[in-house]
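An example makes the point: we print one protein in full, the chain in one-letter code, the fold tokenised, without further comment:
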Amino acid sequence: MSSIASLHAAFFIISINSLLHFHLVASYFLFQRNAISRRAHKERAQPSSRKKIGLLEKHKDYVVRAKAFHKKEETLRKLKEKAAFRNSYEFYFQMIKTRTVDGVHKPESQANKYTQEDMVDMFRGRATHPSLKTRLKFERGWAKKIKPV
């Protein structure tokens, strides 16, 4: 009984060794096959009867074009989704205080908000414009806080 078991074990070891040897040999030959330089595959040119249409689009050109198209498509999908979930009651004052010039947001200029006369009136303390009156009141209150008692 033990001799049959030892034969089975020996056969198993031999078969394992032969499988490993086969695997090593096969991988070596695969490496050799891949090491051989091959001629690069060239895609066909546009047939002469279709020359007037232009260059024939190659696969790599198609892949670049398709990726760009899908990227734009995905951007549009995200923007549509964002617009769908937008709160229609949301409001910021900056929405009215800016305008677009050539597609770029430009804030409203604060340079000439008050006229020269308004500035003189404000400086002398007799403001007529409502926003100037508020500003003057604020400045006077601030000045009272600063003055030493």
Observations:
- Helices lie at 2-35, 59-84, 94-97, 116-124, 130-146.
- The first helix runs from residue 2 to 35.
- The two ends are 117 Å apart (CA to CA).
- Residues 3 and 120 are 119 Å apart (CA to CA).
